[in-house]
Amino acid sequence: MSDLDPLIHAPARLRLCAMLSVVDDAQFATVRERLDVSDSVLSKHVSALVDAGYVVARKGALDGRRTTWLALTSAGRKAFGAHVAALRAVIDATDETG
């Protein structure tokens, strides 16, 4: 179980990484709506992942409005992949003993 990444393991961060793993980037507002969290809650999780080098946040404009895009970095993709593999190993071990 030591391969589980405690930074990614928090449910909102796990869902955030899963969302970002299948796209090049996503708008902050879209992620917030899909995770059903407030701006401040999402900002806290994004900041932790940015600090770890797992996510990059890019600010810009879309249709004249300021927006933020979020994307997994290559390190974030690698860490998320390893975390998913560790979760699968836990599930497989449970299936074998159950």
CATH class bucket = Mainly Alpha
Number of domains: 1
Overall shape:
elongated
Mean pLDDT: 93
The CATH level-2 architecture is identified as: Orthogonal Bundle
Task: Give the class from helix and strand content and strand pairing.
Answer: alpha+beta
Unreliable parts: none
Number of DSSP E strands: 3
Describe what this molecule looks like in 3D.
This is Helix-turn-helix domain-containing protein. Pfam families: HTH_34 (PF13601). With 98 residues, the protein is of the alpha+beta class. The protein has one domain: Winged helix-like DNA-binding domain superfamily/Winged helix DNA-binding domain (Arc Repressor Mutant, subunit A, Orthogonal Bundle), CATH 1.10.10.10. The protein has 5 helices and 3 strands. The chain has helices spanning 6-9, 11-21, 28-35, 39-51, 74-97; strands at residues 26-27, 55-62, 65-72. A hairpin with a 2-residue loop joins β2 and β3.
Keyword list:
98 residues; alpha+beta; Arc Repressor Mutant, subunit A; 3-stranded antiparallel beta sheet; 5 helices; 3 strands; 61% helix; elongated
Provide the fold topology:
Layout (H helix, E strand, L loop, with lengths): L5 H4 L1 H11 L4 E2 H8 L3 H13 L3 E8 L2 E8 L1 H24 L1
Antiparallel strand pairs: 1-3, 2-3
